[in-house]
Task: structure prediction
Amino acid sequence: MWGVWLCVVLIAILLVCALLLFKGRGVWLLIGYHASPPEEKAKYDRDAVMRSCAWWCLYTAGATGFLLSQFWRYELDLVSYSDFGIEGMVYIALLMGGIIFESHYLHKKCLRKSA
Result:
């Protein structure tokens, strides 16, 4: 049952973070951006970075929702614990794909155009 609660807490945290980022009040959550020197911050469109990270939070919440559904299946005795490995690998693959896409998107689409 611990897995279910862990997923629920993680989804709640991710949804709150996404909401803060969409509203434009969550720049403090982006430690790499927030702690950058002003000339580095000037290279990126702040609103685009926050929107992109908010979408990534929603994507990760959805992937964690997938894992939550698998934990529920286990709790309801629909699958055995030995069958649980593939779902964990799918979750990790989803997270890795999301991180790779987000990294590419941030560095290609959120940079300001040179004037």
Q: What stands out?
A: The helical segments are 2-22, 31-34, 38-41, 46-75, 85-109. Residues 2-109 form one domain. The two ends are 55 Å apart (CA to CA). The CA atoms of residues 11 and 65 lie 7 Å apart.
